[in-house]
Fold this sequence. Notes:
It is a single chain. This protein is α/β, with parallel strands linked by helices. The chain has two domains: about 5-40 and about 65-70 and about 110-230 and about 475-500, P-loop containing nucleotide triphosphate hydrolases (Rossmann fold); about 250-455, Class I glutamine amidotransferase (GATase) domain (Rossmann fold), CATH 3.40.50.880. About 30% of the residues lie in helices and about 30% in strands. The protein contains 16 helices and 26 strands. A six-stranded parallel beta sheet has the order 2-9-1-10-11-12, sandwiched between helices. Strands 15-13-16-18-26-25 form a six-stranded mixed beta sheet. Strands 19, 20, 21, 22, 23 and 24 form a six-stranded mixed beta sheet that branches. Helix 6 runs parallel beside helix 8. The chain starts with a strand and ends with a helix.
Amino acid sequence: MSKVIMIQGTMSNVGKSLIVAALCRILKQDGYSVAPFKSQNMALNSFITKEGLEIGRAQAMQCEAAGIEPSVLMNPILLKPTNEIGSQVILNGKAIGNYSAKEYFEKKKSFLPEIQKAYETLQKQYDVIVIEGAGSPAEINLKQNDIVNMGIAELFNAPVLLVGDIDRGGVFAQIVGTIMLLEQKEQNKVKGFIINKFRGDVTLLQSGIAFLEQKCCKKVLGVVPYVTVDIEEEDSLTERFSNKTEKAIINIAVIHLPHISNFTDFNRLEAIQGVSVHYIKRVEQLEYADMIVLPGTKNTIEDLLYIRQQGLESAIIKLAEKGVIVFGICGGYQMMGEVIVDEYGAENKGSIKAMGLLPIYTVFQKHKTMTRVEGKFLNISGDLKALSGKRFYGYEIHMGETKIKGDNYICEMIQNNKNIRKDGIVNQNCYGSYVHGIFDEEETAKALLKALCDKKGIESEKLLENTVNWQLYKQKQYDILAETVRNSLDMKAFYNILNGEE
């Protein structure tokens, strides 16, 4: 039987996902086979497994840290918000419908057997399971029929480490308040605290740590410093969306859609010195864009209406007419077409005129396309012709089927060394594709940057020297994260808790 430990937080965005990733990496380094587990996740940034099933991006990232292949077993329930009070529910990797918050609250306990089945399967395969909670266990309005925090800790008899975020202030109140709102049996599950995102001299915290330990009768396992690592995120609270004003050699403007999803598509470019990825909300922020990207979105029609109302649509069209490169991915690709038709009410039943930048039209279907893909760019025209012949590995996840007028495809998918279908289109300086991760390969990223430099009339050699092997780069980031957390925690106490000795 595998060992288990659970990471819960005092609130959302305290760093639970990264702490779990760090512990997965540490346990792997220490010779254990380890898997992450989150019974219920809520995120727009998702991942497609080899089997074509959808899970939260954080669990895929944690699997990468653990050195294992992501599986739907690690995240049996994924909620993808469709509006302020509703979400699409993904069960065992497949969409089962849209639920209001109230409907889901009333139904969620019925999903518990699926959660239990996934967890028990993982138990048979791995030495250690690191479970991640969601939000806070002290949300007393949500505690009834809980299937993600203390309900899971109780079900799987998992000791809990509670993480608080000192960077936002009030960490002592966070931790004490959380403990005080837990029932006694839940308090007993909490074996220690982790103070996360600390900046400064840790010796100045000693009086506070002593207070916590005395007040709550539980050990503070450590204080983890605020660490800057380039690791994929899934949360809309990510700092990647903070406004950047600095100009770089190449400036890529990603339109910050209200329901932006899979924004990890651009992490690879953002990691290159000399490239700046700006997440744009206002027209004036487009001024220095060398390329504009319309990213993926959970709500294509609603987000199209948003950029229309904000004046961004007309600004993008004008810049495209002046020769600025515009690239659409997934939902952004759909927006760039002529029309979007929603026959079945997947988002907003009816049809809507799109941006008219690409000769395509999209019809939403009842089913969702979810698949890993690999392929290569065709001999394409226009400013990005340098991409021709370059390979990519990625995935597709979309509700719509897009018909292309003409044959100006930009890429073809390959399976078993055979060309199976074509995707995407180019129209002068406007491009689009359904493929997420289309720029992740090193040679593809280099070709894109060279093309942007050539168009700008600047030398590209120095910039291209800054590109990195993306997979090696990510592994290095996990090692940095693991080293930071290992050096910050009382690892003897951690292993004692894991082994049931504390």
